[in-house]
Amino acid sequence: MMVLMVAIGAGGVETAAQNQRSGAQSGVRGGVSSNQQRVAAGETLIRNATVLTVSRGTLPNTDVLLRDGKIAAVGQNLKAGDAARVIDATGKFVMPGIVDAHSHSMMDAVNELTLSVTSMARIQDVLNPTDVDLYRALAGGVTALNLLHGSGNAIGGQNTVVKIKYGRPVAEFIFPGAPPGIKFALGENPKRSNVTVVPGRPRRYPATRMGVAEVIRDAFTRARDYQRGWDEHRAAAKRGDKNLIPPRRDLQLEPLVEILEGKRLVHAHCYRADEILMLLSVADEFGFKIKTLQHVLEGYKVAKEIARHGAGASLFADNWAYKVEAYDAIPYAAAILMRAGVNVSLNSDSDERARRLNIEAAKMMKYGGLSEEEALKLITINPAMQLGVEARVGSIEVGKDADLAIWNGHPLSVYSRVDATFVDGEVFFDREQDITRRPTLERERQQLEQLEANRPPPQGGAPPSVPRERRPAYGHDDDVWDGGDDHR
Amino acid sequence: MINQKHFTAATKLRGLLLLAALLPSLASVAEAQQTGSVTVRTMSTPTSIFVIRNARIVTVSGADIDNGTLIIRNGRVEAVGAAESVSAPAGAQEIDARGLSVYPGMIDAATNLGLLEIGAVAATVDTTEVGDMNPHAQALVAVNPHNASVDVTRVVGVTNVVTMPLGGVISGQAAIINLNGTTPGEMAVTPSAALVIDFPRAAGGAGFFSQPQPPNLTETIQTRDRQIERLRNMLRDAEAYGRAHDAYRNDSRLPRPDVNTTLAALVPFVRGERPVMFRAERERDIRAAVRFADEMKIKPIIIGGNEASQAAPLLKERDVPVILTGILDLPPREDDYYDVLYENAAKLQRAGVRFCISTGDTGAQVRDLPFHAGMAAAFGLPRAEALKAVTLYPAQIMNVSDRLGSIEPGKTANLVITDGDLLEARTNVRYLFIEGRQIPLVSRHTELYDQFKDRK
């Protein structure tokens, strides 16, 4: 398939603006720019599928036409050009690519644990595009991830939203136009409750929920001061004052100023109802919004307060009891929050669970009686809204990015699996291809094993060296403890 | 008699005290038996009789019955069949199951349910004893019947679990329990169902990343070999111990042998009277465990079994069953196919190896059991086999298929009535029976839901 270098976006004007904004940010500190996206040129026609649009209901016997990385048409008897790839999807289901609003995949580091406020640390600096768990997520129909800093710090690092363009350079993963964000964390993890205290070594502040609240208030008090300093400086410059000395730049406080200015989304790890209310009130005090509460296991106890603030909630389907603050978690939380008017998503926080978010969504039909469409929204359009990328992904609609998966049965059935996953109109997972190439891979493996360097010592090979483990896959241990880095 | 418990060699050895007591208030028979430190006492026989009508009955062991009737009496399935072939006894409570399906309760054959409340709080964890050789550690002793996971798990249709100790080389003895009862003894189906051995391997500890691998491979292999040698010696000592005590019992003129509770606990296992569960994932460790079991003449069951399909001919030839606990684990190696564990069950089934599917979970997520089986079915395991893999097969592997795992007259009435396919995530459980008692569909989670769902 031909691949072109094209700048893409939901609309020309918006794209330019978005690129300018992200360019301005990355210009400051030399980040990965997202405006060099490659998208699949040409057409793919998916014929005669049951299309779960999510936004416009379920369409039986429907075609979906993908063109130049976008969904070009949805309807019956669609025509494509002669060069189009045509897929007969009779008896199959098409659903939007799953958006996982909480992931630590492809991250070579999760927690910068030295300080309680690490807003200067950036996940985009530690991305590993060759992480095989990305491929495994694609095989579960996932196409986008919110890569979050760990939960060890009250104010953690800056997150990155990616499309899973497995096999491509990091720059192509960055989700174009996704608003910047940051991780906050409350409760046991930032207060280091589950970490063995080393005798003679001082404990890090904070050690209580009182301290967590004060760390956040202190940081925003400093940020507001810093913002005022710059505002005054700019005003003076505008007045034409001479010989001005600008304030010293502070990379820790700059992202917090962006939060105060509504330019950076806050994704806050939290569990207990009381700490959730604490954070909402601190945010109200400083005049900013929490975009999502992550995990938010006791959020169902304060659903109306969360709705009133306007925060989204990104939950586990039914994880509970792995630590004290998870003991009151219930699988009915999504239903209660949704009915209170909160935007709810289900996330994985785990390379393993990411592969079966469809089943996590299906569980919500049992627990609280969600409809099929409500269940599907939990892993598609709702998380897309929480990440500010709903204009591009999360539903099957003309003009949206061609990020979708073809399933061999209804994706809310345990008996279904993914046949193919598309990102920007290009196939990044194809089960048939995967199986077809296995004999070749087996042969290659056998050849490698025959090489002298790989033969065991009794057969004349060199003594084996013990390979260094790759970084462990992240389970929800990230939440139990705070992220694999220091703990596993 | 209701619910006969197994008499165990270990308890015979100590001089078993059997009590048969009449509970006068309920006018029904109960039994008690001393095994180790737990008194096993069946709950009084339920007096209610139920007749379930108009149901689709998925017997698992036989054909489905489309419009069936099922009678529950004395804790058992008394009769099951087509509507016209079964007549209800007088006084039976009627359940109209039109549009619903009756299944046998699911069984998870490898959990720690009841031994752990909150993983991160050490004070609530009773899974792992100190030391390497703990054959006398009995899971049943530490099962908390009021653990919140009991209710949370059963309301999705899992009626039985094997709960087992962890750690060391000999972890202890696993129990099969009903997820109902107010004492461990009341929950017990088989108090000592199997010995659990975490078979020594060269790759470090039981957990994937729990112990960093020692840098020296030779040293690691030597450590493994030393552990296996210790294990072998201990099992041989137990054989000799059993023989010595038998001899003394037959001829009291012989010198009285010492009493050793550790060795005594091992006797029924080294004699092959009860199975030994070997935790092993890699092909070479599975083969080593089977070889070791052959050598020691013990009855092995493999738990884990991520690479069992690579040893399938051996497992089939020796009739060694596998309890798969890794269906939903990430593939162990970076270059494994993405579905290597999803399709593990299908491969074993095609190769004719006996297997069942388990969560391997500590407790809270045992309720995911049907979805582990569902994933195996999505990747090649026939659906009927997936259902058997969480009902009849674990019952057979754990030697309780005379009582559990399918719907047949005479079997324990552990039944689930659903509004859909038992393995589907969206399916609701409508009625639940354990030992013929109707179990309310409430749990810590439904209670919190009720408490907060209407908060204004």
Detail the poorly predicted runs of chain A.
1-28, 480-488
Q: Assembly state here? A: heterodimer
Total beta strands of chain A: 18
- What CATH architecture label of the domain at 106-401 in chain B applies? Alpha-Beta Barrel
Could you characterize the architecture of this molecule?
The complex is a heterodimer of chains A (488) and B (456). Chain A is an alpha/beta fold. In chain A, 30% of the residues lie in helices and 20% in strands. In chain A, the strands form three sheets. In chain A, strands 3, 4, 5, 6, 7, 16, 17 and 18 form an eight-stranded mixed beta sheet that branches. An eight-stranded mixed beta sheet of chain A has the order 8-9-10-11-12-13-14-15. The radius of gyration of chain A is 24 Å and the shape is globular. The model of chain A is unreliable at 1-28 and 480-488 (pLDDT under 50). Chain B has a domain at 106-401: Metal-dependent hydrolases (TIM Barrel, Alpha-Beta Barrel), CATH 3.20.20.140. Helices cover 27% and strands 24% of the residues of chain B. In chain B, helix 5 packs across helix 6 (261-270). Chain B has 456 residues and is α/β, with parallel strands linked by helices. Chain B is globular, with a radius of gyration of 22 Å. In chain B, strands 4, 5, 6, 7, 8, 17, 18 and 19 form an eight-stranded mixed beta sheet that branches. Chain B has an eight-stranded mixed beta sheet with strand order 9-10-11-12-13-14-15-16. The chains are: A alpha/beta (488), B alpha/beta (456). Chains A and B meet through helix 2, helix 9 and helix 13 of A and helix 10 and helix 13 of B.
